[in-house]
Amino acid sequence: MLRTEYGINTTEEWIVKRTGIEERRYSAPGVATSDLAVPAAEDAIRRAGITKKDIDMILFATLSPDSAFPGSGVYLQQKLGLCDGDDATFVPAMDIRNQCSGFLYSLATATSMVKSGAMKNVLVVGAETQSGAIDLSDRGRTVATLFGDGAGAVVVSATEEDRGVRGWYLGADGRHADALRAQVWDSRERPFIPLGEDGWGRVSPDHMYPKMDGKLVFRNAVERMIGVLMKACFDQNITRDDIDLFVFHQANMRINQYIADQIGAPEEKVLHNIQRYGNTTAATIPILLAEAELSGKLQRGMKVAMVAFGSGFTWGGAIVDW
Ligand code: UT7
Q1: Who's near 54: CB < 8 A, 6+ residues apart?
Q2: Which of 102, 216, 255, 296 could in theory staple to 61 by disulfide, Cβ–Cβ 3.0 to 4.6 A?
Q3: Which residues have CB under 6 Å of ligand 1?
Q4: What are the tens digits of pLDDT across the range 78-87?
């Protein structure tokens, strides 16, 4: 598609070999990130056996919100009908802007909210529309190769049962804030986006599109993801063999295969779907979970290790008894 539809100088062979990605999805013009989130949220609510009105809070992880502000969480709230009728709930809605680790930052926040007793059911969504914000030309081919649109969701609920999120582990290294970023505007400038003579804002391609130091991201991703997995195992007093399923962020198949090799995770315990979706940033882990549950690979009682790394740099991990 990148070559045939957009004329990008690339080959399927290069992309599959370096990233493992065979396909990616782009949503149609007119579809907002919050629109993508609606079916994912509805599906998660149905699978949780609750109704929309049981949701106490919305956490919306995204790097591609509907607009600069407000966040996509309030649009999702509106689109789910939570503001409608006499029993409108007007629950809090919060966006979490932590890119590829946004879902795990949100899961950690939801878990803390539930454990504090403040909330019973927190809807956690990861949704992205990357297709409108990547440089679909030769200049942007390295980044364009990787990213796709998508949405996934889970519900974090209070339970008396002996299961759930056992621990979460988050980290950040702001020294590398510029290694993967889309600047778009510069808040030091007045106005943030320079105006042309016609009074319209002008954004140069250099600011408009994401830029990435791919090799630096790759190296740090491997190191941090292995580190967070080790910390999680140590903290939970478990070993690699106690983990039934490894749910890694889907950024590059090579990153995940390298991590699996290093920690000795058996192939059948490591989930992948990057072949079909590419990197959907905050949505990769909830999409993987939803698919794995549907296919039966993820079952009640399994111990699941989730881990992600991305722009910031930020990273996160969680151990969940499903
Ligand atoms: O969630 C976090 C998000 N990001 C990541 O996790 C990305 C981590 N990094 C990576 O996955 C890899 O660095 C990439 C897949 C992005 C790139 O792979 P690489 O092995 O680091 O390739 P490279 O950037 O060093 O490029 C190698 C060559 C270059 O050509 P020359 O200079 O050797 O002639 C590039 O111009 O491949 C060329 N190239 C391409 N060729 C065909 C770069 N992109 C493409 C492309 N198609 N799409």
Answers
A1: 45, 120, 121
A2: 102
A3: 10, 14-15, 18-19, 100, 141-142, 145-146, 214-215, 217-218, 221, 251-252, 255, 279, 310
A4: 999 999 999 9
Please give the CATH superfamily to which domain 12-162 belongs. Thiolase/Chalcone synthase (3.40.47.10)
Q: Domain ranges in the chain?
A: 12-162, 165-178+210-321
Give dist(CA 246, CA 305) in Å, integer: 5
Q: What separation in Å is there between the alpha carbon of 214 and the centre of ligand 1? A: 6
Residue type, 26: Y
What is the atom index within ligand 1 of the atom nearest the CA of 19? 15
- Atom from ligand 1 closest to the CA of residue 279: 1
pTM beyond 0.85: yes
163: left (phi over 0), alpha (psi -120 to 50) or beta: beta
**Which sequence positions are flagged as catalytic?**
100, 249, 279
By alpha-carbon position, which residue is closest to atom 35 of ligand 1?
142
- Closest by CA to 44, choosing from 98, 110, 95, is 110
**Peptide bond preceding 191 in cis form (omega within 30 of 0):** yes
Other beta carbons within 10 angstroms of residue 231's beta carbon come to 14
Question: Domain 165-178+210-321 belongs to what topology?
Answer: Peroxisomal Thiolase; Chain A, domain 1 (3.40.47)
Residue to substitute in 64, 99, 142 for testing ligand 1 pocket (most ligand atoms within 8 angstroms of CB) = 142
**Is the pLDDT at 1 greater than 90, yes or no?**
no
Q: What are the tokens at 73? A: 């969480």
Q: 229 falls in which pLDDT band (50, 70, 90)?
A: very high
Q: Whose CA is nearest to atom 42 of ligand 1?
A: 10
CA angle 64, 223, 237 (to 5 degrees): 100
